[in-house]
Amino acid sequence: MSELTHIVKQMIQDKKDVVRSIFFGFLAGITAVGLFAANGYLISQAALEPPLYVLIAMVAVVKIGSFIRALSRYAERYYSHRATFTMLSNLRVYFYEKIEQIGPALFQKHRSGDLLSRIVGDVESLQNFFLRVLYPPIVMALVFLSTMIFVSFYSMAIVLCLLVGLLLTAVIIPAWFSKRQKKASSQILEERSRLSIDVAEWFYGFRELTIHQKRKEKEQDLVSSSNRYIKEQEQAGIQSISYQSINMAVSLLVSWLVLAVGAFLVASGELNGLFLAMLVMISFIVFEQLVPMALFPIHYEESERAASRLYSVADNKQLTQARLVKQDQDLNLNEGKAPSVHLKDISFAFVGDSRNTLSDISVSFPAGSKTAIVGPSGSGKSTLLKLILKQYEAKGEIFFGTTPLKQLDQEMLWEKAKVILQENHFFYGTVKDNLLLSDPNLTEDQLQQLLIDVQLPYLKLNDLVLEKGQNLSGGEKQRLAMARALAKKGQLWLLDEPTSSLDSSTEQCLYDLFFNQAKEDTVILVSHRFVGLEKMDQIIVIDQGRLVEVGSYSKLMRSKGYFYQLKQIEDSILQ
């Protein structure tokens, strides 16, 4: 319920449409009651052959009431749907702003298909919250209260009958439906999530499935997920129709009860027979306002579940730490100074993983220093860079200068860092479009020089780049990523295997370019290769998530420890 409270707060941002929806909904409902009351009274009066002007006046009232009802219903639909679409828009923006702050940490807890299902499907499910859950009970209560006040002038017994009908159709039966509906609503959302996960895996892994001849098996899994989802929807639809039918049957029984009680009152002389048809007609129309209550449990459970799933995505401890402090930071990046980075007792494990990826790492990267992080695959080197980028949250402390990383603005840190990861994304467009991500003010001459500097002189700025750089080789992607890093402003370099797909000659040229560009900057380089490490100020050796050795190249070689052994293995392979 607390999650739905957040949804209400989002709707209150545009409360004018909410108020208008309720007002016109009430006006349409009470006009319908008045219209049917006038029709019933007109039927009774016509049987008594009144003067013609009385009938003309009554017909005119009915006509005017019909116009008012139609216009009010249109206005109610217009403003309620506009309020809903505004709410959905606000929700999408709100959740994007939330998850944008935690980024990659989301994928520790949620699979990509599940995330898509939550952020797209669950937001769409919430469109029924206002239209079917929030304001219909308000309109129903107002119309019913007004109707019972009017009917009380004629018969309290009829009021009691209507009140019994209200309790049955608006409270007791929906509450009973609600208990039966909880499991069904949960199953629909879960099956939709599973289907989204299977579809995402199908598209991501289509090539591998085809190569390993497992596509048919995955197709069967996908069809099974789809069939389960369809089956859950069918069952929900059957339940929905049955609930409406039961509710309508009860309301008709109440109308028959009103007719029976009214006839008894007329026979006993306690009610003028002229008003019997009017009261029966009122009982018919007033219960139309209760029709939405039949589906209230379904939409309420669906909305509550969808809101809970959405807020479980955004409810992350990192949100409370993002963008906390934007002053008193001694990074001095805005002044063109390289930062120092200090790690103290850092430990980290992925969500659901019983083993630590990193354990008790304490190391410093002095301002302007050049540091290489080496070690076997899976030792936690890339994870260490991501912790410095504030993509994950770890136990221990990370400092930029004397300022804790937790107190730094994430976007400011990213803005001032030059980053090359193992997997670099390239957008559909041109080479120029992808290079301008770093600095949109670069001229074509500067961009062309960047391509020459990273050994890509044969590429033209207008050459097409497909989605994810599918038409580029691994080496071309790494060199384009290096060009983007060179073009970006900043004094902190975080490089994760930036030359792993390059030949030795090209790799040496890029390292020469890199060291020339980063003379005064703080550089942290992750590498499996030991080429060029002689130029590093310090080398950090990690194995199985633990710090093994720290020192300069010459020091580590003299000590003949773990780094020395790795270097010997590499030399023997290259010979």
UniProtKB/TrEMBL annotation:
UniProt KW keywords: ATP-binding, Membrane, Nucleotide-binding, Transmembrane, Transmembrane helix
Record's keyword annotation contains Magnesium: no
Cell compartments where the protein resides: Cell membrane
Domain ABC transmembrane type-1: 21-290
GO cellular component: plasma membrane
Keyword Transmembrane: yes
Transmembrane regions listed in the UniProt entry: 21-44, 50-72, 133-151, 157-177, 246-267, 273-296
GO biological process terms on file: cell redox homeostasis; glutathione transmembrane transport
Domain ABC transporter: 341-569
GO molecular function annotations of the record: ABC-type transporter activity; ATP binding; ATP hydrolysis activity; ATPase-coupled lipid transmembrane transporter activity
Topological category with respect to the lipid bilayer: Multi-pass membrane protein
Pfam family, one: ABC_tran
PANTHER family to which the protein is assigned, alphabetical: ATP-BINDING CASSETTE SUB-FAMILY B (PTHR24221), TRANSPORT ATP-BINDING PROTEIN CYDC (PTHR24221:SF653)
Protein name: ABC transporter ATP-binding protein
Native source organism of the sequence: Halalkalibacter okhensis
Organism lineage string: Bacteria, Bacillati, Bacillota, Bacilli, Bacillales
